[in-house]
Amino acid sequence: MGFDKIDLNILRELQQDSSLTNQELADRVGLSASPCLRRVKALEESGVIDRSVTLLDEKKLGLKLTAFIQISMDRHTPDRFEVFESLLESYPEVKSCNLVTGQSADYLLEVVVEDMERYQEFLLGRLTRIAGVTGVHSSFLLRRIINRTSLPLDHLV
Fold this sequence. Notes:
sequence-specific DNA binding, Dimeric_a/b-barrel, transcription, alpha+beta, Arc Repressor Mutant, subunit A, ArsR-like_HTH, Alpha-Beta Plaits, about 160 residues, Tscrpt_reg_HTH_AsnC-type_CS, 4 strands
């Protein structure tokens, strides 16, 4: 899909604030409301705009502990990975799960919980009980330096 300057401006604006009304967005990108809405719909239909969400403040919700967990699996088979991944989808504490390479770990997880006690319950009560998990290495967030939700778009110009 080709993008012109207006498409890119629409994407930039929506990445910063997806709650903008169509009229507000149109004003910001220099279009009238109808053409702006058509472009947004086309970006949604093409899959470029995946979804719109509301970002919540973890700390204000009492989620004070973020762990990055490296998981090693016993076998590298599609069925083993499928079972592991489907179980993780049911755990609301898992903010992200990534299959990775270049490390001794197979997966890198970001997990958010209230405190160390809840982390221990999650780790020992659920994560290490999943069939195939052979290694777990945890690191804890001290301070988040950059926390972007937007993607770079300059390469599309």
